[in-house]
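Recall from the previous lesson that a structure prediction takes nothing but the amino acid sequence as input. Here we apply that procedure to Sugar ABC transporter substrate-binding protein from Gluconacetobacter tumulisoli. The sequence below is the only information supplied.
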Amino acid sequence: MSFIKNYIEQQTLNRRSLLLLSAYGLCGMTTAATLGSGVARAAAQNPKIAWSYRDRTNPYWNSIVSGGEAFVRSLGKSTSDLINLINEGSSEKSLSDIKSLLSRYGSEVALAADPNDMPNCRPVVEAVSRAGAYVSTIWNKTDDLHPWDFGDNYVSHMTWSDVGPSEQTARLLFDAMGGKGGVVHLGGIASNNPAIERLEGFKNALKAYPNIEFLAVQAADWDTQKANQVMSGFLTRYGDAIKGVHCASDTMAYGVIEALRAEGIEDMPIVSYDGNPQAVELVTKGKILATVFTNPHWAGGITAALAYYAATGFFKPSAEPKEHREFYGPTTLVTTKDAQVFKTKYIDTNPTYDWKDFWSLGKGQIKYRS
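The prediction returns the following tokens.
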């Protein structure tokens, strides 16, 4: 469990180096005329491949980008050929970095991106489309924004159906609590799709457990240090009334565990989400009851692959059915019963994927609630 303290201490130092990496990836960019949308263009022979994401110090995003690097290597390129656009959770920086990339390379860009929050997805897509470049997104977009409204340039969007899996983890938590007592929920960034859906799943589970008291919910923004502070505040306010903790991500669970340990609490039932290697290890030891794996390595590689192969003309996105433009990624519930077997298959080594088999692990077209 010492890795949690080390993890928290290293985040600030790592972020400094990652910001330098992000700056390096964009250095020397000169302003070029932006190409208008709707103009016929030849397929790019060797497009620049970029991943725009929050923070590689986060194990989830590290797995995402590792998948992107695996895809780049499959092309016979070096890992360093993947351009890292690190936004540190800032939508403004996300959009600014992407625009700078497009200013330098124009239509010769294949971009994989998490827009950081839902409203930012539209300006990102519009900027890419105007430049005649190609983008595939994950997680965050508004319901009224669709790839097929942008021809081929907005290649695809992948998200995960989090309501059901989050409800499953909540039920496991409530059962471990004996069906009674107080529970708190630590959420992600409020405007993030996964934060919204994971809270919804948690609340759905509450309906079947009338003796579980929902004490509080607070956003910790997917951040370990902030989650540590939030949980410390919960303990000060509610004390022994807290009998279980529902976390919307593994990284926040690490902060929760450290806050509990500071109070001498070692056996509080906790569930989390993302299936990060450290969390799976904690599940094998019974320190976390369950997590949900979303296969970020595959997601990171396939999102970059979709943008790249659209840019090179390998396939034409507008000729694909809608279920190939907007689709769910895979989820796997990992519990103490199966964590060791799962760890051997997915954590100790990454399976080999065919990066041209774009939808092999997809779980169908995204469904929107009215």
